[in-house]
Amino acid sequence: MLLMLDLNDPRPLHEQVTAAIRRAIAGGEVAPGDRLPPARDLAGALGVNANTVLRSLRALRDEGLLEFRRGRGVSVLRRPDPREALRDRARGLLEEAAKYGLGPDEVADLIKELS
């Protein structure tokens, strides 16, 4: 499993690691039932602290994507639902738009202009 982080990304590292693992699962690099490498190995490959990776793994477990088993490591339970992920991002976009005084209809118009 090849994971990459963008050093110019302003998001906290744990969020970047979470997103990278989620993309690997969604993209089929790891399938449901597959075990992930140990957190220390992932941390070493990414150049981050093991606690950062553990925080990301716990977040993905809380989303229902991963399963922790004592003595067996971390396994993939299911692939993420793309609509669910996009719904979260759309919610964030609407919140950001509201800060600029734009409503949902105006955001929809902007999206239609882009497509």
TrEMBL record:
GO MF term (any one): DNA-binding transcription factor activity
Domain HTH gntR-type, chain residue ranges per copy: 11-79
Signal sequence segment: none
CDD domains (alphabetical): WHTH_GntR
Keyword Transmembrane helix assigned: no
SMART domains found in the cross-reference section: HTH_GNTR
Record's protein name: GntR family transcriptional regulator
Keyword annotations of the record: DNA-binding, Pyridoxal phosphate, Transcription, Transcription regulation
InterPro entries the UniProt entry points to: HTH_trans_reg/aminotransferase, Tscrpt_reg_HTH_GntR, WH-like_DNA-bd_sf, WH_DNA-bd_sf
